[in-house]
């Protein structure tokens, strides 16, 4: 592409789409580059209750659809491409994609994060064959069956409760003896008759014959190994993993300052490279939620506008 954009936003999640909305309203020429599909992690969420003003029964996909439409309304362009290399020094920032090269005077990195795997034996082999990282995508496949959810934070427990709509029984496997989820979420989970909890445990191995039908758990206090086998009538069960995320920052290594893979910024979303900002889950921060991602995106776009006007 020969266009030189005022701002290029990498990623079309809540942070990127909010940045595009603010940049578009400021009459900045704006390009969003998204690798796969709009929304990032939030499109995997079945129910959104903690975003101000969200509709009753709001889901991740419905919220993202409206955000994307709003950004488009204010003139933001969008392409689907994977960025392989970045050249961020100098006045013009060059992003090299699989399909084309893109040039911008400023860049907002909103690449987000991806689901973190357990790392146990059999996990990769059975991904898509009983192991899943998306309750919304795969919950219905386990209608009337038993499923296990690995994790103890807000997302894990919220998605476990969502899975009770389909599964006969949902067992949460957690490394500690108490959940990390918000108390209000815990109360709902403990009150749900379909919910069960396996404490102080980690998944050691996932096994099956084409599909998952057994799993070995390790008790982290005693070291004891226990094998869980699918009900004979079922023959299979599901394993849903929600143990956090890994930031998508590989292409910025050695260029942008990071801490454990997360991009370091100041309160104005500025990175160590002039004219380059970061927003959302990819940034080093204390809270990763849709509302904070949107705030980051707004700040980044406003700062990009100020940078260009100066």
TrEMBL record:
The protein's GO terms of the molecular function aspect are: thioredoxin-disulfide reductase (NADPH) activity
- Please give the SUPFAM superfamilies that the UniProt record associates with this protein: FAD/NAD(P)-binding domain
The record's EC number reads 1.8.1.9
- Asked whether the UniProt record includes Flavoprotein among its keywords, one would answer yes
Q: How is the cofactor bound?
A: Binds 1 FAD per subunit.
The reaction(s) this protein catalyses = [thioredoxin]-dithiol + NADP(+) = [thioredoxin]-disulfide + NADPH + H(+)
In this chain the FAD/NAD(P)-binding domain maps to 5-297
What this protein needs as a cofactor is: FAD
Q: Which GO terms describe its biological process?
A: removal of superoxide radicals
Query: Would I find Transmembrane among this entry's keywords?
Result: no
Q: Name one Pfam family in it.
A: Pyr_redox_2
Alphabetized InterPro entries for the sequence: FAD/NAD-bd_sf, FAD/NAD-binding_dom, Ferredoxin-NADP_redctase_2, Pyr_nucl-diS_OxRdtase_2_AS, Thioredox_Rdtase
Q: How does it assemble?
A: Homodimer.
Similarity remark: Belongs to the class-II pyridine nucleotide-disulfide oxidoreductase family.
Can you name this protein?
Thioredoxin reductase
């Amino acid at each position: 592409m020969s266009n030189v954009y005022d701002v290029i936003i990498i990623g079309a999640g809540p942070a990127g789409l909010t940045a595009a909305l603010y940049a578009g309203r400021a009459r900045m020429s704006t390009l969003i580059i998204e690798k796969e599909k709009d929304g990032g992690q939030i499109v995997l969420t079945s129910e959104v209750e903690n975003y101000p003003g969200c509709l009753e029964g709001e889901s991740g996909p419905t919220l993202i659809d409206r955000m994307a439409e709003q950004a488009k309304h204010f003139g933001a362009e969008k392409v689907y491409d994977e960025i392989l290399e970045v050249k961020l020094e100098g006045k013009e920032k060059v992003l090299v994609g699989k399909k084309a090269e893109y040039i911008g005077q400023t860049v907002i990195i909103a690449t987000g994060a991806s689901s973190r795997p357990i790392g146990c034996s059999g996990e990769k082999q059975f991904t898509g064959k009983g192991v899943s990282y998306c309750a919304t995508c795969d919950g219905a496949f386990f209608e009337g069956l038993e499923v296990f959810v690995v994790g103890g934070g807000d997302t894990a427990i919220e998605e476990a409760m969502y899975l009770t709509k389909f599964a006969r029984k949902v067992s949460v496997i957690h490394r500690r003896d108490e959940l990390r989820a918000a108390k209000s979420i815990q109360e709902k989970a403990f009150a749900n008759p379909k919910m069960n909890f396996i404490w102080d445990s980690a998944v050691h191995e996932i096994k099956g014959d084409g599909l998952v039908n057994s799993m070995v758990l390790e008790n982290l206090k005693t070291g004891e190994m226990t094998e869980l086998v699918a009900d004979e009538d079922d023959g299979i069960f599901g394993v849903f993993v929600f143990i956090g995320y890994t930031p998508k920052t590989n292409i910025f290594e050695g260029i942008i300052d990071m801490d454990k893979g997360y991009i370091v910024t100041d309160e104005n979303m500025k990175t160590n490279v002039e004219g380059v900002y970061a927003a959302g889950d990819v940034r080093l921060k204390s809270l990763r939620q849709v509302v904070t991602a949107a705030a980051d995106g707004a700040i980044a776009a406003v700062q990009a506008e100020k940078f260009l006007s100066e």
